[in-house]
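=== RUN LOG ===
request id: a7f3
mode: sequence -> structure
chains: 1
length: 256
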Amino acid sequence: MANLLKSRSLKEVNRDLIFQSVKSLNQEKVETAALLIEYFKNAGFNPFRAAEEAEKKSGAFLDYLNDEINRCTQTGEACLYLPTSNRNVTCLNLKFFFVQQLLGELYTSISDSEFELVCAKVLKHNWKVENAHVTKAKSDGGYDFHGSYLVKGGKNSFTHSVIEIFGQSKQYAGNISRPEIEKFIGFIQKNALSRKHKPTIYIYATTSNFSPEAFQLANSFGIICWTGMQIASFIYSSLEIETNDAKAALLHYLNH
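=== RESULT ===
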């Protein structure tokens, strides 16, 4: 309990306890003090101490909340918190928990090849990429999905240039490690020689996340990293049906 909201740092907040507290309250708008009291009670504090800590840590929580909103805006992830939140009232996006269910389905209810197809669908639906597709099994040459982004302009929207996109996907429970990124870099270096500096985007997609070392290495080579939560958020943002069944939503996305 010693680290809970210990400082004004985002890392000091126990996100799982926050999620548990929001679920137990189940409101789209909740008094910030009430949310924090629930948070500290779930952490093991007695009601009196929980209220005391909630009062002291409201400023730190507001900083955390704003950091989360900014981070999700930058990454495209669904966010639990809405920008209308303030020190008195926390406004919540309860659909966030449906996106979490989608994330679980990405790992448990589809195959590796279907996850590759999901990534190609993200290129098609969310990036508006032409000819997004998966590669043939055992002959992909180091990438799993591919597409072409057409840069258009002018009165007739003619194509100025074509940006090729090559993606690697891994349906995985643990964090992607540095060696996995190094393997993909081997493909990138080989591909760069044949493409002769033509505009190219490289993506590494996973159902999980990336270790700090893997993310740093990917970033240094200009590789775009898609986490499982990002992909689940992409799927949710472009769903064409309304449903509370995450598995049904994922299967609909795969087939459209």
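=== NOTES ===
The chain has two domains: 10-94, 100-254.
The longest helix spans residues 58-75.
=== END ===
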